[in-house]
Design a protein that fits this description.
Strand order of the largest sheet: 2-4-3-5-6
Order of helices and strands: EHHEHHEEHHHHEEHHHHEEEHHEEEHEH
Number of strands: 13
Structural class: alpha+beta
Distance between the termini: 48 Å
Helix content: 40-55%
Number of helices: 16
Radius of gyration: 22 Å
Largest sheet: 5 strands, antiparallel
Low-confidence stretches: none
Strand content: 15-25%
Shape: globular
Length: about 375
């Protein structure tokens, strides 16, 4: 059976809770989504706001403060927001991506025959006593392992030990240094067996499918997943380009004509970073923008399920302005919906006392950066 681009788009939006805002709790949504990419301290809150009915920042911030949610290096060795249970279950399975990075970038910098087990054990001991940034950890480890590169020492602990980035960093309306502690110290009462690769792929399809083997590999950082797909109970489809798409038999696949409301996505939104082929949501207008290799990452607006505009907020003490740069000619009705949803987003992001305004700018990404500077 053929799944055209629009059918694939609607199926993915349904899994990502972007067709209708869900009534799940925050932990339920975070587990359903298999985590939210969250290397920025706060932008991921918008990812929950745009997916969950009635979401308020405290619904996630309070859980992060007490350990029911954590920010942890997980999939692709990037920081993800996860429940404590998922963090412990998923991290051992996907740690290989971080190990590949470490082997390429840091292994040689440790010199000959580095005592890896001793380095990790000492790092664990230091961080259990006092959460540290990686700069602080490297300096402390350097006194224990003289002659070894401090950054490589810290990264060795990061890769071979499950570390949690501790609050206040990540709490809504607060800031703090990127300090880490072992998950075993932060989550002493949470236990979880390592997740099987079969279950991880099922979770992926439930949140991002239908998808190819390559899509799942890009998302997870794992390789050789074709043999996993081969033994799972799935249904298969053909994409417009002939690629074989796999899916869970009972997963939602809405009618391609299902309306898709305007949705504001944050800069590292899962929807944009979890497939090898992102044509299910990306448009030529998006792909033609001169995004820099070193950031900043764009935040997009979906119109009819596809990338139709970029946005950036400017929040000051007395005002909140949301700048929106369309990537294509939008109808007046679409512009009205983008403005209305943008106004709702500003009410979420800004204090009620701030004067709020949504402003459209012409010229795409460069013009948006200038307007929001």
């Amino acid at each position: 059976m053929l799944l055209d681009r629009r059918a694939l788009n609607r199926a993915t939006l349904a899994r990502q809770l972007l067709l209708d805002r869900a009534t799940m709790t925050v932990p339920e949504a975070v587990e359903h989504l298999a985590g939210l990419q969250a290397q920025t301290p706060h932008t991921w809150y918008t990812g929950l706001w745009t997916r969950l009915a009635g979401f308020a920042p405290a619904h996630a911030s309070d859980l992060l403060a007490d350990g029911r949610l954590v920010r942890v290096a997980s999939l692709r060795s990037t920081i993800h927001l996860m429940t404590g249970r998922d963090a412990l279950a998923v991290r051992p399975l996907v740690a290989v991506a971080g190990e590949r990075m470490w082997s390429t970038n840091f292994r040689r910098r440790l010199g000959a025959d580095p005592p890896l087990d001793d380095i990790v054990a000492e790092g664990r001991r230091l961080l259990t006593g006092t959460p540290m940034t990686f700069g602080e950890l490297g300096a402390a480890l350097g006194t224990c392992f003289p002659g070894r590169d401090p950054a490589a020492l810290a990264q060795t602990v990061r890769v071979f030990e499950t570390l949690v980035q501790v609050p206040p960093r990540g709490l809504w309306g607060r800031s703090g240094k990127a300090a880490h502690t072992p998950a075993s110290a932060w989550l002493p009462h949470v236990t979880a067996a390592p997740m099987s690769v079969d279950d991880l792929v099922r979770r992926y399809l439930g949140a991002f499918g239908p998808a190819t083997v390559r899509d799942a590999q890009v998302w997870s950082g794992l390789t050789r997943l074709a043999e996993v797909f081969a033994r799972l109970t799935t249904v298969t489809f053909a994409g417009q380009d002939g690629r074989e798409l796999f899916d869970l038999p009972d997963a939602p696949r809405p009618d391609p004509d299902t309306p898709a409301p305007v949705r504001y996505l944050y800069d590292f939104d899962n929807l944009l970073l979890s497939h090898a082929d992102r044509s299910r949501v990306l448009t030529t207008g998006y792909l033609s923008q001169p995004f820099g290799d070193n950031g900043p990452m764009p935040a997009v607006v979906l119109v009819d399920g596809f990338t139709a505009a970029l946005w950036r907020p400017v929040l000051t003490r007395g005002s909140a302005v949301l700048y929106v740069a369309p990537l294509t000619d939008l109808s007046s009705a679409d512009l009205d919906e983008v403005a209305e949803e943008g106004a709702r987003l500003l009410r979420f992001l800004a204090p009620p006392s701030a004067q709020q305004d949504v402003r459209f700018v012409d010229g795409g990404w460069p013009a948006l950066l200038r307007a929001a500077a």
